[in-house]
Amino acid sequence: MSLSRLQVTDFRCLQSAQIDLDRRFTLISGPNASGKTSLLEAIYVLGRGRSFRTRRLEHLIRHGKERFVVFGEVDTAHRRVNVGVEGSRAGIRARIDGDTPPSLAELALQLPVQIIDPEVHHLIEEGPARRRRFLDWGTFHVEQSFVGHWRRYQQALRQRNAALKKRQPRSVVSVWDTDLVRSGELLSDARARYVSALSPSAKLIGEKLLGMELALSYRAGWSKELTLPEALNQSWNHDVEAGATQIGPHRAELAIRLDGAAVKDRVSRGQQKLLAAALLIAQIRLFPDDSAVQPSLLLDDPAAELDDDRLAGLIHEVSSDAVQLIVTTLHGEFAAFGQPGRCYTVAAGSIEPADVSRGT
Ligand SMILES: Nc1ncnc2c1ncn2[C@@H]1O[C@H](COP(=O)(O)OP(=O)(O)OP(=O)(O)O)[C@@H](O)[C@H]1O
Ligand SMILES: [Mg+2]
Questions:
Q1: Atom number of ligand 1 nearest to Cα 58
Q2: 326 with 295: CB under 8 angstroms?
Q3: Residue 224 sits in which domain range?
Q4: Domain match, 228 and 347 both
């Protein structure tokens, strides 16, 4: 079950737009700067509480306006859920069936959303923080207790770092170690289990999309030879020097190898895109079968950077009954995806339904 209706107000160039989405495949077409990516971004913000393009909330608010609102109806296996987000300079507020959820992470449970866009290669190219976010989103959907461990870890880390920064004595700094270690180990074990589960599927998809052997491994953020308390102990002088905790799950990395070599700086832009797509598709395939909602996969201009064969391979891999595809294209046709259930055209921030048969 999936996002069935979306209403957007004052989000980027979209003044007011409402669309119904197909359970399987919705196609959005329009010229450059018409608002296609903005529409996908609105869906992403609804499922994640943040954008994939910017950290600055004010960039999402239509010029001259005070706030944006995105509202969605999600059909789950059991019932219809209303989700909404409102963004203003004061921050972002979420609503689920009229109530304020305890955290934005709750949005992800109602609307699990993933995006493959022309910038997706950053997942490979950038530093480990982005890959940790990728891991954490996936781990959360497989083990929901993960978010609790994550929060406790972040809190203990913040407090410990604040004490280090104030040059407090070791007895004060280590007050936080018990919490840090307990939540850090749970968090790290959950991530490691997730990477083990993800690896076979990523390998298979990597082989199909890139024709190379894709291998994933989890690096916990401290030496494999040591337990977390031992590593903290060993790192003490570095921590004091830096005024911050130097080891731990906040330094973890998802290591990626292609045909046995580390990928960083070795693969072309197109290969980075396919590699990132392989990881994201593997993640969506790992989505629990018994989940009440199916994940929505947003594909923003999937043809960018890819030759026809690679694009056909990507489309083949993402097309599955268990995923809701929402795809944008510059041109009104995308035969390789098959018949879209719904089609829209975007022009200068306004969205109109289009003839479904144009999508074939
Ligand atoms: N906060 C904002 N308020 C109003 N307009 C905005 C805002 N932010 C961006 N825009 C404008 O929205 C327009 C649409 O941008 P968007 O990225 O959605 O286009 P697109 O259809 O994806 O284009 P392309 O095909 O080039 O990727 C752009 O002209 C941009 O300048
Ligand atoms: Mg765009």
A1: 1
A2: no
A3: 119-286
A4: no
Distance 259 CA to ligand 1 centre (A): 39
Q: Give residue-wise pLDDT tens across range 14-42.
A: 999 999 999 999 999 999 999 999 999 99
Same domain for 4 and 97, yes or no, is: yes
Q: Is 34 in the pocket of ligand 1 (CB under 6 A)?
A: yes
Instruction: Tell me which ligand sits closest to the C-alpha of residue 36.
Output: 1
CA 298/CA 6 separation, integer angstroms: 14
Ligand 1 lined by 32 (C-beta under 6 Å): yes
Strands (E), the chain: 3-11, 14-20, 25-29, 67-75, 80-88, 91-96, 113-116, 214-219, 253-258, 261-262, 296-300, 324-329, 342-347, 350-354
**Distance between CA atoms of 126 and 195, rounded to whole angstroms?**
19
What average pLDDT does range 298-305 have in this prediction?
A: 90
End position of a domain, from candidates 254, 286, 318: 286
Tell the residue nearest (CA) to atom 30 of ligand 1. 33
**303 and 276 inside one domain:** no
Looking at the fold, whether 137 and 264 belong to one and the same domain comes out as: yes
Ligand 1 atom closest to residue 328's alpha carbon, by position in its atom list: 22
> How many C-beta atoms surround the C-beta of residue 92 within 10 A?
18
The overall pTM is greater than 0.90: yes
332 pLDDT higher than 80? no
* Ligand 1 pocket residue status of 53, Cβ below 6 Å: no
Number of structural domains the chain divides into: 2
Tokens of 50: 């943040």
Mutational pocket test of ligand 1: of 12, 41, 69, 300, the residue with most ligand atoms within 8 Å of the beta carbon: 12
Q: Give the pair of three-digit tokens for residue 284.
A: 């969506």
Is residue 360 predicted with pLDDT exceeding 60? no
Report which of 112, 115, 92 is spatially closest to residue 104, judged by C-alpha positions.
92
Distance between CA 118 and CA 122 in Å, rounded?
Answer: 9
The CATH number linked to 136 is 1.20.1050.90
